[in-house]
Amino acid sequence: MSDFDKNCARKSHSRQTTLLGWKRGADVVGTDESKKSKRDSSTSDRLSIESGSRNSLWENKSLPNGPMILLRNTVGGIKASERQSTKSEFSSLPDWNDNVTFQIFGKECRMRRRVCQYSSGGNVSYSYSGLKNISAPNFPGVVYRIKCQVEDLMMNHLLDAAANHSNSMHMHVSPEFMDEIKAVKESRDAPIGSRREIFNYCLLNHYRNGEEYMSYHTDDESSLHANFPIASVSFGSTRNFDIRPRNKDEAGKKSRLDRIPLGDGDLLVMFPPMQEYYEHGIPVEKRVVGDRINLTFRRVRKVK
Ligand SMILES: O=C(O)CCC(=O)C(=O)O
Ligand SMILES: [Fe+2]
């Protein structure tokens, strides 16, 4: 990666901040409705989920104010060969864009990975990384299949933990989201047109080698639903997922707090309010052999 690219990556992040009017820091609370509802869900009235006993396949990766759960080697099939063929299907989707450019202080920067995005019925509009009005066609079959699997895995885990009255303080899920997944679960037997869904948007990232990366950022656009998590799925080579605080420390630094290796078939779920407190990114790692495709499923509020 050249210094110019590094610079672009860094600046793109600060530019995003300006463009979307984000405020950073644990002590700063936004003024829009989504942020208000986050604030109103106090820790005490959230359902606590324990990753123990029957739910032991899920690891608890939470940081303070950053609830996260992780399930290894499962999405896309238990067998590596099944996941490999799913990854090939992703790779040959027709909508990849490997030349995404954006302007930073008058300079043109190119995104160092290829990306594409899909949404429910092609009706969802979402802007990120300073890019606006990006078209997001209807979910192709392979993305829809993985979306359903991710929703089921997550829903069953959370409902199971709730039914077992798990009471660890590690993991907090808002009552609003628990109500939502109960409704989604109940609607699974309904005719296809009237089924509810958790996620209505998917962003795919293809890192073709260890030099392709994603700089530190938060996924806290106001168009994202405040109570819903972001579910991130990985296929292919293992890449590190780095986490650091949004706020600088006394020395003016933001030091890395955690590094989670994300491998083939892994599912990482980030719950609110994680995006208010932490940034995450995929660093350059030249020694990585092979490519990785990542899917992040989101719930966007604005539907066209
Ligand atoms: O590739 C990854 O695991 C990170 C993806 C991500 O953070 C994003 O799409 O916002
Ligand atoms: Fe992200």
UniProtKB/TrEMBL annotation:
PROSITE patterns: FE2OG_OXY. It comes from the Eukaryota. Signal peptide: none annotated. Residues 198-301 form the Fe2OG dioxygenase domain. Pfam families: 2OG-FeII_Oxy_2. Gene3D superfamilies: Alpha-ketoglutarate-dependent dioxygenase AlkB-like. InterPro entries: AlkB-like, AlkB-like_sf, ALKBH3, Oxoglu/Fe-dep_dioxygenase_dom. Residues 22-51 are annotated as: Disordered. Residues 32-43 have a biased composition (Basic and acidic residues). This is Fe2OG dioxygenase domain-containing protein. It comes from Cyclotella atomus.
